[in-house]
Amino acid sequence: MKAIAISGSPRKNGNTMIFSGHALKAIAEEGINTELVSLAGLDIKPCTACMACVKEESCPIKDDMLPLYRKMKEADAVILSTPVYFGSATANIKALMDRAGYVSYHNGRVFERKIGGAMVVARRAGKNFTFAQLTFWFQIQGFYIPGSTYWNVGIGRNIGEVENDEEGMRTAWNFGKNIAFILNKLKK
Question: What is the distance between the alpha carbons of residues 129 and 61, in angstroms, rounded to a whole number?
Answer without folding.
Answer: 29
